[in-house]
Amino acid sequence: MIEFIKGYVDYVTPEYVVIDHQGIGYQIYTPNPFIFQKSNEEKTVYTYQHVREDLIALFGFQTREEKALFLKLINVTGIGPKGALAILAAGNPPQVIEAIENENETFLVKFPGVGKKTARQIILDLKGKLGDVAAYYAPDLFTSEQFEQKETANHALNEAVEALKVLGYAEREIKKIIPSLMEESLTTDQYVKKALQKLLK
């Protein structure tokens, strides 16, 4: 895995930039290539290497936090690297984080390729899981106490989900009840009990 590339901006296109690192030109897809103006100043681009059967591509970001948000987005079902880039390019990260935390589907469906189903999936998969990124981009969105509560609740919910899987419940069944479970901050035991009540109805 290439964590970052340090070099000079050799070429800028609407889709990608080329970074010259010791005479080798790296083609890197970025949310907004024109942020990287061609100059004699050395730049650091934080990268993610995407490998598919028919493609190997580098995606690059100005900060580790932007890269972290990208990685979270591409783990959402229905969001690929190009879709994640579009979200990062079209909306600034604090707005995206706030929309996810506030379950603002109307804002999320404005992005290319994001319909209502995908917007709901983004919220389902990422709400309460953006603490590390939000601390950088939107420090005023939550107090440190709220972050702690969210992280604790998120950990407890994840443990509860694993416990339900061990009990034999299918992932599709569990996913249906997760939104209602996320409405409260509970202990793992309480989440399990509440989930079982819902699953047995």
UniProtKB/TrEMBL annotation:
Q: What's an example of a GO molecular-function annotation for this chain?
A: hydrolase activity
What are the boundaries of the region Domain III? Answer: 152-201
**Ranges for domain Helix-hairpin-helix DNA-binding motif class:** 71-90, 106-125
Enumerate the InterPro entries for this protein: DNA_helicase_Holl-junc_RuvA_I, Hlx-hairpin-Hlx_DNA-bd_motif, NA-bd_OB-fold, RuvA, RuvA_2-like, RuvA_C, RuvA_C_sf
Q: Which UniProt keywords apply?
A: Cytoplasm, DNA damage, DNA recombination, DNA repair, DNA-binding, Hydrolase
Checking SMART domains in the record gives: HhH1
Any transmembrane segments, and where? none
Q: What is known of its domains?
A: Has three domains with a flexible linker between the domains II and III and assumes an 'L' shape. Domain III is highly mobile and contacts RuvB.
State whether it acts alone or in a complex, and with which partners, per the record: Homotetramer. Forms an RuvA(8)-RuvB(12)-Holliday junction (HJ) complex. HJ DNA is sandwiched between 2 RuvA tetramers; dsDNA enters through RuvA and exits via RuvB. An RuvB hexamer assembles on each DNA strand where it exits the tetramer. Each RuvB hexamer is contacted by two RuvA subunits (via domain III) on 2 adjacent RuvB subunits; this complex drives branch migration. In the full resolvosome a probable DNA-RuvA(4)-RuvB(12)-RuvC(2) complex forms which resolves the HJ.
UniProt name for this protein? Holliday junction branch migration complex subunit RuvA
